[in-house]
Known about the structure:
- 60% of the residues lie in helices and 0% in strands.
- It is mainly α.
- The protein has a domain at 7-71: lambda repressor-like DNA-binding domains (434 Repressor (Amino-terminal Domain)).
- Helix 1 (7-24) crosses helix 3, helix 2 (29-36) crosses helix 3 (40-49) and helix 2 (29-36) crosses helix 4 (54-63).
- It is elongated, with a radius of gyration of 22 Å.
- It starts with 6 loop residues before the first helix and ends in an 8-residue tail after the last helix.
- The relative contact order is 0.11.
Amino acid sequence: MAYFLGEKFLCKKIAEKLKKIRLSKNLSQKTLAENSGVALGTLKLFERTGQISLFKLAMIASALNRANELDQLFEYEPERYRTLKEFERAHHIPQRGRK
Length: 99
């Protein structure tokens, strides 16, 4: 089921999830900033608003041992077909000619 969250809501939701992970590891914002190489102000802004560059997000995810989740973010899933006919229609497989 696909639904639209809205970009701002989605970014804020990601920030909230990473904040929960940070807190579950008993890390302060200052400690995570130091461990990730992200400026403290950038981390605070991210947790408050969800705004951050992809590169900085990857640095934070890596410091929290969650970089693999970013790697899997847009996994390619091939189309699934119920029948061989659906597959053939989608891929226009030509039939062999008769002599």
